[in-house]
Amino acid sequence: MIHALRGMKDLIFDDARRYEYIIQTLSRIARNYGFEYIETPILEETRLFKRSVGESSDIVGKEMYQFTDKGGNDVCLRPEGTAGVVRAFVQAKLDRQQGQKYRFFYHGPMFRYERPQKGRLREFHQFGVESFGEKSVEEDFTLIVMLAEIFEALGIRTRVKINSLGCTVCMPPYRQRLVGYLEAIAQELCPDCQRRIATNPIRVLDCKNEQCQNLLEEAPKLSQELCEECDRDFTRLQKLLTDAGIAYEVDTHLVRGLDYYSGAAFEFVSDEIGAQSAVAGGGRYDRLVEFLEGRPTPGVGFAIGIERIMELVRMPQERREGWYLGAMTPEALDRLLPLARQLRRSHRVVVEYAPKGLKAHLKGADKANARYCAVIGEEELSKEHIWIKDLEAREEKTVPLKELEEIEAQ
RNA sequence: GUGGGUAUAGCUCAGUUGGUUAGAGCGCCAGAUUGUGGCUCUGGAGGUCGUGGGUUCGAGACCCAUUACCCACCCCA
Q: Could you check: is the Cβ of residue A79 within 7 Å of any atom of nucleic acid strand B?
């Protein structure tokens, strides 16, 4: 038997319904917040991600599905969604519309060659939004509010963590101070952290090693060394969240894993899904458009991991819907087919082609989750009638075929 | 890449210290008088016990290898 590749799953039955419901719900909310749909290619040039996500990240360093296509291009399956949307933004020359705001939402598959575990697949799906041209911290606030609304709508309990990653003014000096501190205690840090001092010192902060965490308690904190502007924004963000009644925790160790983040960073976590607890993450990336050769344009966005919230979603109760049509004789089937075609203009219709007894048809209609079971038997056929039962109300009636056709044609 | 766990029916799992024709529940199919679903009852189909070796008179059980899946580390949504 040919099996799906490791870390790749079919969405079928309940999973498919949940996926569809999630996408519909999130799309609706995104539109209410002024975002519009964008779709970008799943395959992109590798250098897009090297420049945006960053070569020092594991994602680009060792997790990409990368290959050379038949034209000799170095390409890869997208490992995340932001880079493609920013590329599309620059390619459409929207960066030339200074002062304009653009807001997009997207959803679709992402690929990372990792060892699968709970909440982590090689092909997984994200729903994300990207907002361009809005520098105000109110936009950061609005995205967090939006996420809160999303998880509330889906019936998922989450905790909100926020942090500020600083800007070009305050981050570089902080980074230097941090490196100085880390070098002094380097021998006591785990091997990974020792390596990170050179490659990406900020990420030492969210090392999961307990000994490292203890050593880091005395480390300089960016939150205390933010420049005036960043500090003002971060304080304002906290005030807005408090006023809006959104509980949050400031997590100075919250470091987004991708290089393009700056300024506000946030993460929504769930305590009900195992080790991979981050269900959504995002933040500001005011320099990313420049990295991709666009004119400087502020940006902020987030992404939600669909698979991570799938089992948590509270689905609305499913109701019986549409029609089941069945015939008790071969001749009766000939009358059913045109009727099905008519009904399908506006209703869900399932047709059973095999002639069967009434009981079998009722069972079939029940299994098909149809609201109405309509059957033509010998009796009905001779009078040009059709027998209809409402499976929910348990009421039945026999009406002329013509009547049903006319009513449903509207 | 590293570590741990699990592989028996379509699904969830039982299978005692190795011992005859490998079981249950759910699901599926067919019936319970001739045209009435969900509930109940009866019957039925369906398994080379992940794969390959080995130990043994005898292996679903024990040993080795291999593959797949799951969980955790790493990293991230």
A: no
In contact, A324 and A340? CB cutoff 8 Å:
no
Give the number of other Cβ atoms within 10 Å of residue A121's Cβ: 21
Domain boundary among A310, A340, A375: A310
Cβ of residue A6 near strand B, that is under 7 Å? yes
CA of A115, C1' of B23: distance in angstroms: 37
- Tell me the C-alpha distance between A270 and A313, whole Å: 12
Average pLDDT over residues A57-61: 81
- Residue numbers 286-305 of A with CB closer than 7 A to any atom of strand B: 303-305
CATH of the domain at A355: 3.40.50.800
Q: Which two tokens stand for residue A333?
A: 């089937």
Taking the C1' atom of every nucleotide in all shown strands and the CA of A125, the nearest one is B77
Of A275, A310, A345, which one is at a domain's C-terminal end? Answer: A310
Which residues, listed in sequence order, are joined to residue A385 by a DSSP beta bridge?
A400
Q: How far is the CA of A4 from the C1' of B55 (A)?
A: 37
pLDDT for res A408: 60
- The CATH number of residue A241's host domain is 3.30.930.10
User: What's the CA–C1' distance between A17 and B50, in Å?
Assistant: 31
Please write the tens of the pLDDT for every residue from A242-259: 999 999 999 888 877 677
Please tell me whether residues A98 and A159 are part of one structural domain.
yes
Q: How are beta strands A102-111 and A36-37 bridged, if at all?
A: parallel
Residue A51 per-residue DSSP state: I
* Cα distance between residue A361 and residue A280, in whole Å: 46
Q: How far is the CA of A117 from the C1' of B15 (A)?
A: 30
Please report, rounded to a whole number, the percentage of residues in chain A having pLDDT higher than 90: 64
Q: Are A391 and A365 in contact (CB under 8 A)?
A: yes
Q: How far is the CA of A357 from the C1' of B68 (A)?
A: 45
> Can you give the distance from the CA of residue A61 to the C1' of nucleotide B1 in angstroms?
13
A232 CB and strand B closer than 7 A: no
Are A83 and A130 within one domain?
yes
Give per-residue pLDDT as tens, A91-107: 999 999 988 999 999 99
Q: Is the CB of A394 under 7 A from strand B?
A: yes
pLDDT surpasses 80 at A208: no
What pLDDT was estimated at residue A168? 82
The answer to whether the beta carbon of residue A259 comes closer than 7 angstroms to any atom of strand B is: no
Q: What confidence tier does A410 reach under pLDDT thresholds 50, 70, 90?
A: very low
